[in-house]
Specification:
Radius of gyration: 22 Å
Number of strands: 2
Helix content: 10-25%
Order of helices and strands: HEE
Distance between the termini: 58 Å
Oligomer: single chain
Number of helices: 1
Strand order of the largest sheet: 1-2
Structural class: alpha+beta
Length: 49
Amino acid sequence: MVVPKRRVSKTRAAKRRTHYKVSLAMPIKDKDGSWKMPHRINKFSGQYK
């Protein structure tokens, strides 16, 4: 029977078991009415934030 050589820490085990996934950022409407991704430069107006 295979036995682990070292004990797995609680944190490492919890990270492996987690089911939380990173969600995609939702586009937001800019001042001029165009849609852009958050924390990105608007390609049309050239403004950030």
